Amino acid sequence: MNKLEPQAGACRVYLVIANPGGPDIADLKLDFILFNQDQVIEKRVAASLAPVAAGKTTVKLFDIDGQDCARIGSVLINDVMSCGTAEGAIADCAKRITPSSRTAAKLFK
After folding, report:
1. Are 13 and 102 in contact (CB under 8 A)?
2. Which of 44, 34, 48 is nearest to 80 (CA)?
3. Could you tell me the superkingdom of the organism this chain comes from (predicted)?
4. Residues 29-84 pLDDT 10s
5. Are strands 74-85 and 106-108 parallel, antiparallel or unpaired?
6. What DSSP character marks residue 37?
7. Which pLDDT belongs to residue 91?
8. Burial degree of 9 (CB within 10 A; 0-12, 13-18, 19+)
9. For residues 13 and 64, is the Cβ–Cβ distance under 8 A?
10. I need a surface site. Which of 31, 32, 50, 55 has the fewest CB within 10 A?
11. Do 86 and 45 touch, CB atoms closer than 8 A?
């Protein structure tokens, strides 16, 4: 997680996603749980982050409607809802994810 940016009535999340070893990821949808500063659950959000080409680093962003960025204390990658190539699902996709954050909010799994 690289940046949280306030928008009109929303919080925009910027994620830097690296796929150094491949394969091309055609489908990637993650389930996130947002916690406030007191570690109480604020919201649950699903985000589609594909495509991510092999050997590529890319920035994906999505808006969380009704969320104040300043209230986000941490973000849990709760589940990998879908992950796959054009040929099919990737086994153990969650193990490939190494979360980190450059914001005050922690990103973890």
Report:
1. no
2. 48
3. Bacteria
4. 999 999 999 999 999 999 999 999 999 999 999 999 999 999 999 999 999 999 99
5. parallel
6. T
7. 87
8. exposed
9. yes
10. 55
11. no
Report the pLDDT value the prediction gives residue 51, as an integer from 0 to 100.
96
Listed in sequence order, the residues at least 6 apart from 106 whose beta carbon sits closer than 8 Å to its beta carbon are 73, 74, 75
Q: Which stretches of 1-109 are assigned E, i.e. beta strand?
A: 3-7, 10-19, 27-35, 41-48, 56-65, 74-85, 88-89, 106-108
Tokens of 61: 């962003």
Token pair for residue 97?
């994810």
Find out whether 45 and 81 touch, Cβ atoms under 8 Å: no
Place of tokens 């990103």: 107
27, two tokens? 């489908």
How many CB atoms lie under 10 A from the CB of residue 98? 7
Q: Are 49 and 30 in contact (CB under 8 A)?
A: yes
